[in-house]
Amino acid sequence: MAQAATAKKKTDTTFAWEGMDKKGKKMKGEMDAASIAIVNALLRRQGINPTKVRKAPKPLMKMKKKITPKDVSIFTRQLATMLNAGIPIAQSFEIVGKGHENPSMREMITAIKNDIESGTNLTQALSKHPLYFDALYCNLVAAGEQAGILDTILDKVATYKEKIENIKSKIKSALFYPTAVVVVAFIITVILLVYVIPQFQTLFEGFGANLPALTQFVIDLSKFFQSWWYVITGVIIAVVSSFTYTYKRSDKMQATLDRLILKAPVIGDIIKKATIARFCRTLATMFAAGVPLVEALDSVAGAAGNRVYYEGTMAIKNDVSTGTQLQTAMTSTALFPNMVVQMVAIGEESGELDNMLGKVADFYETEVDDAVEGLSSLLEPIIMAFLGVVIGGLVVAMYLPIFKMASTV
User: Fold this and answer.
1) Distance of CA 45 to the CA centre of its chain
2) d(CA 146, CA 251)
3) Residues 285 and 161: beta-carbon distance below 8 Å
4) pLDDT tens, position by position, 236-253
5) In DSSP terms, which residues pair with 20 in a beta bridge?
6) Most exposed: 4, 31, 233, 355, by fewest CB within 10 Å?
7) How far apart are CA 373 and CA 45, in angstroms?
8) In this predicted model, what pLDDT tens digit does every residue of 25-44 receive, in sequence order?
9) Dist CA 353 CA 340 (whole Å)
10) What's the pLDDT at 206?
């Protein structure tokens, strides 16, 4: 028994082999053995003449796919549907987990299911994964568990996350196009300055005449970039890294930058409407779930997505906690349009605050959709003009001396 166990421990190396059988047919495969000599002996016993035996390469480690907010949104919708159909929660997790395409998400769902089966409630199980289930999500689930309406609350959470992700995706899509064009224009400009313009420079040196000012400027710029490209690249990387590092750690910088973004033409108005829509949607969902207003405002502040509105929401929370009406507290921040405040006032007086906030959120989400479409239409001619000036300017600068020479002949 001891010898068998020892032999088993030694045969943990996988070898890849190639050889020929008795008919001369080429064959290949893999075999676990203690050494190459043993592989050769085993193959010969099978009637195979080995020609090449080597250690099999180790399989590459697969990168885990990142869990996205969209994954969490889909999971929430599926779980709400399962619970609404009367399926037990543990079985619901098993069904949703097996059907999810993201392996990382399946792994997390399985971990949550195991916690639930061991006696942990859903809120505690979700709170073990704060990167994907924030305080707002856990608070809503806790309210649903306490009230016995978990399926209803999860349906509201799913709707909330779907609408918030929809707004985010529309804003990102609106910003992606101009950003991509600027990046491509920069790359093309670098290629022209480094590889194309030096060829023209060699040609122009044989002209023996003064070059046009624009052409000379472009050539000087090309020389500068070729000589100092590493410094320029280092400065750009250092500035971006420093900015990112400081922004993540400085509340003052976040507030200043977010305030500037809100004042920016066109895009600032879109960001403001999206933030108000998120504020109203989040507060409506929390309030409808039975979460106390002060506690709900704490979660709303964290979901604001803008430092200015975060500070404004915290100020509203402080005022409400001392007995001030929500509409009065919102007015004092000067961050919300009069229509929003009036709708909140009607909601407070009629006892349908969640419905009124939901209507405001719907209105501003539609406004964001329209504004994004308008922004796309506005940016297209501006981007075309930008490309024409940058790329076209470089091309014209290189051909000006040729046109000048042709006119003098």
Assistant:
1) 57
2) 36
3) no
4) 889 988 888 887 787 788
5) 26, 49
6) 4
7) 73
8) 787 877 777 888 888 888 88
9) 12
10) 65
